[in-house]
Design goal:
The chain is α+β, with helices and mostly antiparallel strands. 50% of the residues lie in helices and 21% in strands. The strands form four sheets. The protein has a five-stranded antiparallel β-sheet, with helices on both faces. A five-stranded mixed β-sheet has the order 11-13-14-16-15, covered by helices on one side. The structure holds adenosine-5'-diphosphate.
Amino acid sequence: MRRPLFAYALVAAVLIAVVGLTYYSYRNTPSERLVLLDTMRELAQEKVVGIQTEIIKEETAMFGRVDPDNLADLKRALEGSNLRSVLVLDDEKQKVILWTKRQEEDTDRFFLDVVVPDLDLDRVLLDQRKSLHATYNGLWHLFGYTSRLINGKLYFIIVESDIDHLRAKVFPVFFDVRGSHLYQVIDRDGDPVYGYRFSGVPAGDVVELPFHDTLSQWRLRVAPRDARLLASRASRRATLDLILISAALGVILAGFFVMLWNVRRERRLSELKSEFISNVSHELKTPLSLISMFGELLSMGRTRSPEQATEYAEIIRRESVRLSRLIDSVLDFAKIERGVDVYEFADDQNLADIVGRALDISRHRLERAEMQLDAHLAGDLPPVRIDANAITVAVLNLVDNAIKYAADGKRLVVDLRRAGDDGVELEVKDFGPGVPEDERDAIFDRFYRSRTVRLKPIRGSGIGLALVKHIAEAHGGEITVATGDDGRGSVFRLWIPAHRES
Ligand code: ADP
């Protein structure tokens, strides 16, 4: 009882382990979507850094060109750059110079009265760069500023980037229109200032990053160009993963069950074998002790009459026949088990004769069991190719079983007839207890004895029907068992194919 329990516990443990492992690895494998989002975040980061570097490089180059003694040079520098304006203030925050490419009038006032008050000039450290990104009159402006000591004097330098130039020339270099991603720059209200609105892209598939140090009011958005394709690829991958995982699970479980089934079968077989050994020893011992007992009585002359002596001799003869039959079938069985070819087939055998002779051998035993034999052996049988000895063994086994298990039925009907055009059928029908339906396959297994007979004192080894089955199959035929028409007894049918001349 403990062993199956252990096996079930093992199955449960393996199942839990497999399911747990599968779940763990499934959870820890990043989904394709997460990998995609990570890639996009890196890409966005790269673009933001690239654009900021361009802007800051231009600004710092201009900071370095400021020389209060040579301001005409600064104008040339501005014209050669992509910046819009450059303003230099002294330490009193008074204008030293303002160069600009702006066409508007009042640029001075715009810078000095509007922009400068918005700058954090008091807190900008020497050579530190700060920036201001803001709208004036509904238009975006970007300023970078710093303070520098030139010839021992402090100056504030403010440069204005050209946002139109950034949008028209710098952004397109970074945001490849033919790449696998879509780019968009939005302002703080979420309105696009560069690129188009993404259509059909789920919000969860968009990555957004701010431009911290320059265009601080704007944010870059990146999305996959073909979101639907990626989504369907991700779902296909998920389905494939699921199929593979289930298939692997199925294989593991199937392997496990096959192993368990094999172990159980082996165990059952070894139990049956040891039962067989004790049955056979018992079957050998009984006739032997009868033979030795009656032999002894005869040799000591302890018989009351010559009839009694004949009776004792008859017992000895009968028991030795039984003994030799048993030994024969054990030897035959052993040969078959070893895979030795034990059959000697011959063409055109007269099956009716062979069955008739086998029944004659059994006739005496049938009479002693008070069983009436009705034999119908048809004469017009098709030719068969058979091993006469093997068929005799099969008939004897079937009849012996009927005597052993169905003597109460008092009758045995043996029918040998044509079965259609293609075979011959031998039917052995008794009126005993029959074979329970769930054991109708098992009784043909080696060493198998029915549950009901194991409890009764009926001798047997469990190899008789296994031999019959082997013989039937060696002849290309089969053996089956059924219940009689009236629901009583058992009907064994041995079918053998007719031999076709080729
Ligand atoms: P054995 O007779 O040595 O037990 P067999 O292989 O000849 O072995 O038979 C296997 C089992 O089939 C028997 O133990 C018995 O339970 C069952 N059996 C065989 N023939 C009959 C029958 N005619 N009626 C009922 N049960 C049978």
